[in-house]
User: Fold this.
Amino acid sequence: MESRAYIQSFLENIRKKQVRNQFIASFYGLLTVFLGIVLLASLTAYFFPEVQEYRGQLSVLAGLFLLLAISKLFLQNKRLHLTLDQAALGLVELGYRQIGNGLQQSASEVLADH
Assistant:
């Protein structure tokens, strides 16, 4: 029983690291989108000063785009939750590259049959 608890804690650590990595990737994606919006606004204000009168509408549009990016990056990662079974299958396939996706496909077929 001790080995089962060790495996469970090991897979739980992998799942936690994967969630942390997804959060970090989402944060960097969001930072990239935000900096892109700032750069676009700065370049537009510099090269097209006549657009200044539409600054309010453009700010609302940039805010909506930022909200869309937030929902896509963070909420999408919530749906991509890694289960312990998926972590175990991924580890086995990392160790045995010749298996490819065969193990995951056969596991999903077995689960579909039950």
Notes: The chain has two domains: 2-81, 83-114. The chain has a mean pLDDT of 76. The radius of gyration is 22 Å. The first helix runs from residue 2 to 47.
